Each structure stands twice: as C-alpha cells, then as structure tokens.
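Q: Convert this sequence to structure tokens.
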Amino acid sequence: MADTDNTQVTGMKTSNCLAYLIVFFVFLLLIALGFAVISFARGGEKLETAKYVFASIVPLVGSWMGAIIAHYFQKDNLAAATQSITNLASKVPGGVPSKGSTPVSEVMIKRADIKSIPDGVSTATPPDPDNYATIPLKALADKLRALNQQRLPLFRPKPDDSIRQVIHVSVIDAYLQQHPAPPSATPPVPTPATLQTFLDDPEVKKQLAGSFDFVAVTGTLSDVQKAMTQQCEDVFVTQNGKPAEPVLGWITSDRLAEALKM
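A:
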C-alpha cells in the first residue's frame, strides 16, 4: 500500500514538472517570435507590428492560462459539484436518499397484517388464544409449519396490544426434542407440553431474552439496523419506541435485508 502511494506521488510530481517546463518554453517561444517579427519590420512599421503581435499573443496566452487552470482545478470542482448535487437530492422529496433513511412505516408489516396464534389450536371451549395453557405446543408447531409461518409474535390482550414475546418455530422444535412426552401407558396420563409450559421454562426464557427490540414510528431503517444484533432478529414499531405501547408494525431481519437490497 505504501509503495502504491509513493508511486502515485512520484507520478504526480513528474507530470507537474513536465507541465511547468512545457508552459515555460512555450512562453519563451512566443516572446522570441514576437521580438523576431518586430525586429524584421520596417522602421516606420515597428509600432504597428508591435500592436498586432501584442494583440495576437495576449489572447493566446490568456486562453492557455485558462486551460491550465481548468486542468488543475477541474477534479476538485467536479467532486465539489457532485457532493453538492448528492446533498441536495437527499433533501428533496422524490430525490435519491440512502436506503437507511427510509421510514419504518414504509417497510413494516402493519399490525392488522401480523399473524399470531392460528385458529384451531386452542383446546378451550370456546377457543381462547390468550390462554396459553390450552394450546398444545406440538399442535401449535405443526400448524405454524403448515401455514409456512416461521415466527410467532405473542401480543397482550387488547386494548393493551403490546408485544409479549416472539417465538421462532425452530426454538419450539428444539424444545420438543429435548422434552419428549412420556409414553401414554405410564401412569398418570401425561400432559402434553403447552405454550404456557414452554414459556415458563427457565432455559427458554434465557434463550428468548433480548430477541426483539423497539423503534418509534418516526424512525428509519438505520434505527432498525442499530437495534438488531446477533440475538435480536425482530423489531417492533410503536408510537414512541416504548415496549408498553401498542404495536403499530413489525420488521423482521429478513424484511430489513430485503428492503436494504431494493
């Protein structure tokens, strides 16, 4: 890297020296030609000849100076103009702002479109999706897979409607493998694991801790990026970014990645 920088600096010095030499000798040549033309003029015509030579050389020198100045300053001017246009475009509605400045409201899944506990899994009569003790865990996992729903957000009952937890189907599957139901012939009759027993498990609580975060509805995708970590894969949008507020929208890690690629 250092060798490359030194080579670039040496090249710049060489080109500058070459430019100075060319300009210097061209000016000497012009001056010499001017004096030669004047010296060969007749005695009474020297003044008129000098005027013509002066009128010819001055515009030529001026245009050359302008070309030299433009050559040495055009790069900086172009960079400054490009930066100015970019800054202006990012501030004008309909311009080309960075993807990170996209409002979360344009990307989030609206609350009305968020799917939670699917129908037909609660064993209560009538079905009560808010009573997690009546929802068999395996039946829930099977239903989610059938619906191709890989994440399950759990909300507190309305009008609260704040988020309680987000569960990935893979976490449920791992729990069921580690806690297989005992044979049905073994007394007493085994009780299948429910969503409530799953959520009450200390290991599950530890695994789910910090798995989601919040941003305000006025936030941008940059705010979502900052909120997401290796542990956090889901960000919920509320009015002021507070956990106790009703959920307005939801942005998953997959949805964020897709939005930033567009």
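The CA atoms of residues 144 and 150 lie 7 Å apart.
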